[in-house]
Design a protein that fits this description.
By secondary structure, the chain is mostly helical. It has 16 helices and three strands. A three-stranded antiparallel beta sheet has the order 2-1-3, with no helix packed on it. The longest helix has 30 residues. The protein is globular. The N and C termini lie far apart (44 Å).
């Protein structure tokens, strides 16, 4: 199971690196006025726009209009929300590039130092607050403060049309301050397991809150448990699996590490609420991948994957992307 998750993570990173490479050359074509070769815009890059996708979701619900500027972004956002409600927070540990990198850095730190640092509980809880505060800020700003006319205007604005380009520039034209911040996050992620995900990621905070309603649970049978504590030690999110009958923490990312290390059969497993038998652990990644692929195929079949922004619009907007702000 660990190898299967690592394989999915590695494949996801390769796809995203290829997407980033293609998008860089797509933008470069317009920056040079068409002098460099044209590379088709990869729609998958819109997956890095969860805030824009939240705006688009409100527009779809309130105005009945499915986003045509970043349709793939909305599709990906809907797929992630659906998998979370049905299958808990598996996106974070199976697909999310931030989660993958944070986990790998934690592994590296553990190998170099012998273990990761564990913060005292009061400090640990206090440091979790920022991701929920950021989530609250965006949720309030978009879902409460923005009226439907403002939502529609934002979606159609030049800024939203080139927001992915501006995100690219965020990394290609990185300031010293930003580079130092990223380096600090990487160092802290090596020292403290899942530092970014646990303390700073508002997307993960949203998915954690949604995961509470999922009918799927990791459950423990205390009658046959030998109290070896291996499950708790294997949890990258420091959940006390060995003392829980049912794991329903907002920090659980369904990595299934606890089930993998359990030495006694039928002690730990996945169950759907109300059902007696365990769900096969191999059914979990199959369902997770299946839902994502289903959304992808449905989006292509219904014409909700590629942007409606024309070549001419990009030729006009991208060279002056620096001018636009929200």
């Amino acid at each position: 199971m660990v190898r299967a998750r690592n394989l999915v993570q590695f494949a996801t990173l390769l796809v995203l690196l290829y997407t980033g490479w293609k998008f860089f050359w797509f933008v470069r074509h317009f920056e040079t006025g068409g002098a460099s070769p044209f590379v088709a815009r990869p729609a998958l890059v819109e997956g890095f726009l969860p805030i824009s996708a939240l705006v688009a979701l409100k527009n779809w619900i309130g105005n009945g209009v499915f986003d045509t500027i970043h349709p793939a972004g909305l599709v990906i956002f809907l797929a992630v929300l659906t998998t979370t409600v049905l299958l808990k927070k598996g996106f974070c540990s199976w697909f999310c590039p931030g989660g993958v990198l944070s986990e790998r850095l934690g592994d590296l730190g553990r190998k170099l130092l012998g273990k990761n640092l564990t913060l005292p509980k009061p400090l640990d809880w206090a440091l979790m607050a920022p991701k929920y505060l950021v989530l609250y800020f965006f949720a309030k700003s978009i879902l409460i403060d923005m009226d439907m006319a403002g939502i529609a205007a934002f979606i159609d604005a030049p800024y939203n049309r080139v927001v992915v380009v501006k995100m690219l520039y965020f990394f290609t034209d990185m300031t010293v301050g930003l580079a130092a911040f990223i380096a600090a996050i990487m160092l802290l992620s090596a020292l403290i397991s899942n530092f970014w995900c646990r303390y700073l990621c508002p997307y993960g905070a949203l998915l954690g809150l949604l995961s509470v309603v999922s009918p799927l649970r990791i459950v423990r049978d205390p009658d046959v448990c030998i109290d070896c504590q291996l499950c708790t030690r294997a949890c990258p999110n420091r959940i006390g699996v060995a003392t829980a009958v049912e794991v329903n923490s907002v920090e659980c990312t369904s990595c299934l590490n606890c089930i993998k290390v359990c030495p006694k059969p039928a002690v730990l497993g996945l169950k759907v609420v109300g059902m007696k038998d365990y769900v096969s652990v191999w059914a979990y990644p199959a369902l997770l991948l299946g839902i994502v692929i289903l959304f992808f195929l449905a989006a292509i079949a219904t014409g909700h994957w590629q942007t409606s922004v024309s070549y001419g619009e990009y030729m006009s907007l991208i060279p002056q992307a620096w001018r636009f702000s929200h």
